[in-house]
Design a protein that fits this description.
211 residues, 40% strand, 10 strands, Chorismate lyase, 2 domains, alpha+beta, single chain
């Protein structure tokens, strides 16, 4: 977790300097990306970037534990709606068929690192909504309803700028760079089970690729 720095007044008192000197020093640390500030929250030591492996099997919890970070996922919303034409085509379902849309936040050592949106074909995955509410992750939820394994068939990556909502959830500035990945995952029978998009905080995550 990123450590919060004392207030400007506390730092000035501790080091026997005026607040202008402290403010100048903090500004320089921000420029060097050693410290970042959050409006209304204060200044924090910049957390080390998180290596995140992209491959056929992308498992958030396994990835982070492998590099000594503690993973967590927080579901923000779960909603059922009719699939769009593009979603239906990609998921190989009929147009207008219900899908489950999950929006959530991924954390490493309690620090937000990514926002995600996952779309699931409900008819193909009965019981998934309840499983996602109870399980600690997507892999565990899918396994609990009979999907023992799933693999990514493709991943697209592009850079975007954080909007106000994304910045709020990721605790970054609006307009900060994000890495957006789009992917499709298939179960063991080759049927699509997840259409996903993830927005990674650009300065907090290093995407790596395995074979």
């Amino acid at each position: 977790m990123a450590d919060k720095l004392p207030t400007e007044a506390a730092l000035a008192d501790r080091f026997g300097v005026n607040r202008h000197t402290v403010r100048h020093a903090l500004s320089q640390l921000v420029k060097e990306k050693l410290v970042h500030t959050r409006r209304g929250a204060g200044a924090f030591v910049a957390a080390r970037p998180t290596d995140y492996a992209i491959g056929k099997r992308v498992r958030f919890h396994e990835n982070l534990r492998a590099i000594g970070r503690e993973p967590a996922k927080k579901i923000l919303t779960l909603e059922r709606r009719a699939a769009t034409k593009v979603e239906a085509t990609t998921l190989a379902i009929s147009g207008g068929t219900q899908v489950l849309v999950c929006h959530g936040l991924s954390l490493a050592d309690n620090v937000p690192v990514a926002l995600f949106e996952a779309i699931y074909p409900l008819e193909r995955l009965p019981g998934l909504e309840e499983a996602l509410r109870e399980a600690t992750g997507v892999t565990a939820a899918l396994k609990s309803i009979g999907v023992e394994d799933y693999t990514r068939t493709s991943t697209r990556i592009n850079a975007v700028l954080a909007n106000a909502t994304q910045a709020l959830h990721l605790q970054i500035r609006e307009g900060s760079p994000l890495l957006r990945t789009s992917s499709l995952s298939l179960d063991g029978n080759g049927e699509p089970v997840e259409l996903g998009r993830t927005w990674f905080a650009g300065d907090g995550v290093t995407l790596t690729f395995d074979g």
